[in-house]
Amino acid sequence: MTTRTVHVVNVSARRRALNFWERIYLPEVLRGLWVTGRHFCVNMWRHTLRAIGIKSVPPGAVTYQYPDERRPAAERLRSLHRLTQRPDGTPRCVACMMCETVCPAFCIKIVAEEVSDPNIEKRPKSFDIDIGRCVFCGYCVEACPEDAIRMDTGITELGSYSRRSMVLDIDTLLSLKPAAQNQGKPVDFLQKRLVS
Questions:
Q1: What is the distance between the alpha carbons of residues 160 and 157, in angstroms, rounded to a whole number?
Q2: Residues in CB range of 27: below 8 A, 6 or more apart
Q3: Closest CA to 164 of 114, 121, 128
Q4: What residues does 129 pair with on adjacent strands?
Q5: Three-class DSSP labels, the chain
Q6: pTM (predicted TM-score)
Q7: Contact of 83 with 170, CB cutoff 8 Å
Q8: pLDDT tens profile 31-73
Q9: Dihedral of the alpha carbons of 123, 90, 103, 167, in degrees to the nearest 10
Q10: pLDDT, tens digit (0-9, with 9 covering 90-100), for 122-169
Q11: What is the pLDDT of residues 113-124, one digit of tens each?
């Protein structure tokens, strides 16, 4: 039988004892108030100088006044999906089911139909995305061989009063535009559609 030696270290023995001023907390409270007051005064001074036209001063800290003021979105932000179209207005999707297969949330449902055009074997008869289940992973965009689905609408506000209205059909997905065409304006289309 082997014996093991265990070294016990008393952690509290390493902690130094608090002095009188630290025990009464008053200096630490005053130090915290001084730091907060300093940030307030510096930011107010910078905002005031910039308000009177002195732009060489660095801007003060800001808070976005949502929903009147929206935070700028990153270029690679994954937002609501849209389906792209060919120049003749038909969906670029060929109903290959790659996006439906790769979706980890199983939120894409496609029903395919045959097409008489020999260049296009199939097209989606219906293409539904349940955005209430979507995790916005972007796998559908990466898996699509036709660049038929994108997540560049810039729409991130997806609230709704019912689960049924969270399912977007093919007509809705084809009507959405990229965020660059919205010119930074908020898109109220979803509020109209999802709230109804």
A1: 9
A2: 21
A3: 128
A4: 108, 168
A5: CCCCCCCCCCHHHHCCCCCHHHHHCHHHHHHHHHHHHHHHHHHHHHHHHHHCCCCCCCCCCCCCCCCCCCCCCCCCCCCCCEECECCCCCECCCCCCHHHHHCCCCCEEEEEEECCCCCCCEEEEEEEEECCCCCCCCHHHHHCCCCCEECCCCCCCCCCCCCHHHEECHHHHHHCCCHHHHCCCCCCHHHHHHHC
A6: 0.66
A7: yes
A8: 999 999 999 999 999 999 998 998 888 888 878 878 887 888 8
A9: -110
A10: 999 999 999 999 999 999 999 999 999 999 988 888 888 889 989 999
A11: 998 888 888 999
Length of the chain: 196
What type of residue sits at position 131? I
CB-CB contact of 153 with 82 (8 Å): yes
**Which amino acid is located at 27 in the chain?**
P
